[in-house]
Specification:
By secondary structure, the protein is an alpha/beta fold. The protein has 26 helices and 17 strands. It is 45% helix and 13% strand. The chain binds adenosine-5'-diphosphate and zinc ion.
Length: 607
């Protein structure tokens, strides 16, 4: 089979997505290949398709048991012979799987990195016909990355021991330059072809909200979206407990996940979520890596995370099926304090001496700053994130809270002059609160102590509310007029535009949301699906069938058919095998297994 036939036969798709084909061709040309694609872009197909075209076995190295299980489950559903070798197997199961592998039963084998250099595995690998080694989550080799795994260093050791070096491909969603270079160097990729696909996920909408009552916001949102599956991320275990308990008391089918739960409970809760028994998950960031659930319709961050990388990764777990999905970040000033505290307390890496630790902290504070700006900016949120990853976006995406909210322009010339002058006069020694209290003319004992009540700008902006002044401060910080020093107690300094502004002046306008936007959180009750209005009754019937089959097969419903595939069935309304096979996501094998049962429902329905 060629690559198109493989795509159609096993996956039921007609076309490759952006970037997939280039990566596949590169691998099939025998070139080492590094693919960097955002979560949900479809990395798996990039190594699975060539694996099924080539002669020989493909070893996929993957860091997480759950990830392997899910991938192998999906492949088996599609009729591909695949297996995994990791510590979840008993010794007997492991030997049996290796035996099958020796007999050439599997085209794709997922292996945990620490298995690679064990004697049994090496003996097998040296004799086997290995066509490709594919490293999933390749950023785990890099100490710069967030998920460094020492066992990933064994990969090269392993490859070096093979008689013939197979083609090596590597994939990750982490794009920073250091990590990229590390991957190439540490995995010893040979003249790798590198492909970075666009980081944009255009089916995701981004929102930042600053509700007075976060819980009320979440509770309302969840109730407005009763049939949907979503993740609510909290910064601490304690808030996971609180939020999940309250939702549960309100009758929501919710579960929770954090590092403080027993292994058993975590496994159970994860399954409840994946199988849609409890479609709402409240979790810390310990949850998610290796979760491929494709029908997650929203990801709400109850607290601001520590950096844009984490945010994009976590938010990116929404909408993997390509359906419209919402990513909402609930911001409060408390989140900043909490994150700063976590950075200062960070003892994660015992090996670092004081100086190195300071470098790491400085970097973390710098990243946190960018995350805070994300919550502050009045410009397009998508554009902001894309720029962060070094990509040029459009200044208007039309699908984020900033693009969708109406703004008015406020003249901040006077306020800017006062604030910049105040900062200059006190020789850039104080933090945001002191500066703002000074221009506001607050009766704060500290001001006297620092002699800020003597500053020429004291009380000049007394007509402004502190909240408004904060907004202006954020604007100036974000637009280069001011800067925050990167230290434990950040102080306000003049930015690159300050000198020119103080000298030459100039009118400055700041975008502020129109006041009426202040009312209750705008929770949109969207139609469930992007395709033209589909028939809910039929969709429900198909969904019931899917649940039934999933139970029989003991796999998550989305491995039987994705929501998107069911939606597509509702609009194609196939009555024959051939027309069923035109539905996106219905491949030959799945048709043979389940196709008839769905066809019958559709035929009965259409009459
Ligand atoms: P990643 O590993 O990059 O996060 P996955 O490989 O899990 O993403 O793919 C995400 C989803 O996109 C899966 O449901 C997959 O079936 C789907 N997908 C991938 N490639 C295609 C394609 N060419 N056409 C349609 N759907 C695709
Ligand atoms: Zn936008």
């Amino acid at each position: 089979m060629d690559k198109y036939e493989v795509l159609k036969h096993y996956y039921g798709y007609d076309t490759f997505r952006e970037g997939q084909e280039m990566l596949i061709d590169s691998i099939l040309d025998g070139q080492d290949t590094l693919g960097i694609m955002p979560t949900g872009a479809g990395k798996s197909i990039c190594y699975q398709v060539p694996a099924l075209v080539m002669n020989g076995i493909t070893l996929v190295i993957s860091p997480l048991i759950s990830l392997m299980k899910d991938q192998v489950g999906a492949l088996n559903q599609a009729g591909v012979h695949a297996a995994y070798l990791n510590s979840s197997l008993s010794y007997n199961q492991y030997c049996l799987a290796l035996n099958y592998a020796r007999q050439g039963r599997y085209q794709i084998i997922y292996v945990a990195p620490e298995r690679l250099t064990t004697e049994e595995f090496l003996t097998f690998a040296k004799e086997a016909n290995i066509a490709m080694i594919s490293v999933d989550e390749a950023h785990c080799v890099s100490q710069w990355g967030q998920d460094f795994r020492p066992s990933y260093l064994k990969i090269v050791e392993f490859i070096d021991q093979l008689a013939v070096r197979p083609v090596v491909s590597a994939f990750t969603a982490t794009a920073t330059k250091e990590v990229q270079e590390d991957i190439v160097q540490i995995l010893k990729l040979r003249k790798p072809r590198l492909l970075i696909t666009g980081f944009d996920r255009n089916n995701l909408s981004y929102q930042v909200a600053k509700p007075a009552d976060k819980y009320a916001y979440v509770s309302q949102y969840v109730k407005n979206n009763p049939d949907k599956s979503g993740i609510i991320y909290c910064l601490t275990r304690k808030s996971v407990e609180e939020v999940s308990n309250r939702l549960q008391r309100e009758g929501v089918a919710v579960t929770r996940y954090h590092a403080g739960l027993s292994d058993d409970e975590r496994r159970q809760n994860q399954d409840d979520f994946i199988y849609d028994t409890k479609p709402v998950m409240v979790a810390t960031n310990a949850f998610g890596m290796g979760i491929d659930k494709s029908n997650v319709s929203y990801v709400i961050h109850y607290n601001m995370p520590k950096n844009i990388e984490s945010y994009y990764q976590e938010a990116g777990r929404a909408g993997r099926d390509g359906e419209p999905a919402e990513c909402i970040l609930l911001y409060s000033g408390q989140d900043v304090i909490m994150n700063q505290f976590l950075i200062d307390q960070n003892r994660e890496n015992e090996a670092l001496d004081f100086e190195a630790l300071e470098v790491v902290r400085k970097r973390d504070r710098e990243r946190l700053k960018k995350m805070i700006y994300y919550c502050m900016t009045t410009d397009c949120l998508r554009e902001y994130v894309l720029q962060y990853f070094g990509e040029q976006g459009e200044p208007y995406c039309g699908n984020c809270s900033n693009c969708l909210v109406e703004f008015e322009k406020m003249d901040i010339t006077k306020a800017t002059t006062a604030i910049l002058t105040c900062v200059q006069e006190c020789r850039e020694r104080y933090g945001i609160t002191i500066i703002l209290d000074t221009v506001h003319g607050s009766k704060n004992a500290k001001l006297k102590q620092y002699r800020m009540d003597q500053n020429t700008q004291f009380g000049i902006l007394e007509d402004y509310t502190i909240a408004k002044l904060r907004q202006i401060m954020d604007y100036l910080l974000h637009h280069g007029y001011l800067e925050l020093s990167v230290s434990q107690y950040p102080v306000v300094q003049l930015g690159e535009l300050a000198e020119d502004y103080l000298e030459n002046g100039g009118m400055l306008l700041m975008k502020v949301p129109l006041e009426q936007e202040k009312k209750t959180p705008k929770v949109t009750k969207k139609k469930a699906h992007s395709e033209k209005a589909i028939d809910d009754t039929l969709f429900e019937q198909l969904r019931e069938m899917r649940t039934k089959i999933a139970k029989e097969e003991k796999v998550p419903p989305y491995l039987v058919f994705a929501d998107k595939t069911l939606v597509n069935m509702c609009s194609v309304l196939p009555k024959t095998k051939d027309s069923m096979l035109t539905v996106s996501g219905v491949g030959e094998v799945k048709y043979e297994r389940y196709g008839e049962r769905f066809l019958e429902i559709i035929k009965a329905y259409v009459g």
